[in-house]
Specification:
The protein is built from three helices and seven strands, in the order αββββαβββα. The protein has helices at 2-18, 85-97, 137-156, and strands spanning 42-50, 55-62, 67-71, 74-80, 105-107, 111-119, 122-129. The chain has a seven-stranded mixed sheet with strand order 4-3-2-1-6-7-5, with helices on one face.
Length: 158
């Protein structure tokens, strides 16, 4: 019995190694689930949610300007009208200027907002409660700018 357990353990480890993905991150063809990306991939993710359901609405802006949304009503990622790569670069620069790389702020609450900047394999995340202590004004203003962008781009879809 002990040998069977050991063999099962070895097989499980080997299978996990075989199933590991390469270092490349891509958006799935149908846009349903973004994956991590190439080592220098730039992603800007932000969203809000929580409460009784724990559901979040999430937006992801890629460095090339593609935008995806996931909401409690829709179980998979859906495309939002993209922006240009130059426009995306402006938002990534704003994230850095707002202090995303330096700020260590993780104070979620019942209802929470967050912004996460991904540069390759590095992630910078700021999380705060709707009704609690808030992060710096530049971070809140940046979150509002991102929200305005999404409203504008979703309106462009109609």
């Amino acid at each position: 019995m002990k040998k069977i357990l050991q063999l099962g353990f070895v097989v499980a480890i080997l299978m996990s190694q075989i199933n590991c993905k390469s270092g490349k991150e891509t958006q799935s063809e149908n846009g349903s689930q973004p994956t991590v990306g190439e080592p220098k991939t730039m992603l800007l993710e932000f969203g809000s949610g929580g409460g009784v359901t724990g559901a979040y609405t999430i937006y992801i802006i890629h460095g090339d300007g593609k935008i995806f949304e996931s909401s409690p009503e829709v179980k998979e990622m859906t495309k939002v009208t993209p922006i240009t790569a130059k426009e995306a670069e402006v938002y990534f620069n704003q994230a850095v200027e707002a202090g995303m790389k330096e700020m260590k702020y993780n104070k979620p609450g019942n209802m929470t907002k967050y912004i996460e900047l991904t540069e390759g394999d590095k992630k910078y995340r700021v999380t705060w409660a709707y009704d609690g202590e808030n992060p710096s004004t530049p971070i809140k203003d940046f979150y509002n700018d991102l929200s305005k962008l999404i409203r504008k781009q979703k309106f462009a879809d109609q």
